[in-house]
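task queued by scheduler; priority normal; single chain, no ligands, no partner chains; default sampling; output format set to structure tokens
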Amino acid sequence: MKPDPLGRALAAAQRAVELAPSSNLASQALAQAYFFRRDLISFRAAAERTIALNPMDGATVNVTGLFIACSGDWARGCAVAESAMQLNPHFPGWYRFASIFNAYQERNYHAALEETFG
């Protein structure tokens, strides 16, 4: 196994952004690399840029919202994830993860179950 996988992921994501600065997917990769390196200041900036680059890409917006929520900004993350659900009324079930995790971390287990199983 090669050393420093998070450092290599960050370098690859930075290179992707250099090569395609208008790509929301490159920006998402950069945001996730920062998230997993626990560089939350850089993560939040990259996450907001990801959303701004293509707010109509529901999957990218939703997963970015989930990461924002898991970084501690539950209100913003859940709102971002919810905005992705508004784009497509037939969204996949995993789009609910941010609101499920939020209810669970608030110890609102009934709401978490309701959100999970409807």
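post-processing summary
- The two ends are 43 Å apart (CA to CA).
- The CA atoms of residues 69 and 77 lie 4 Å apart.
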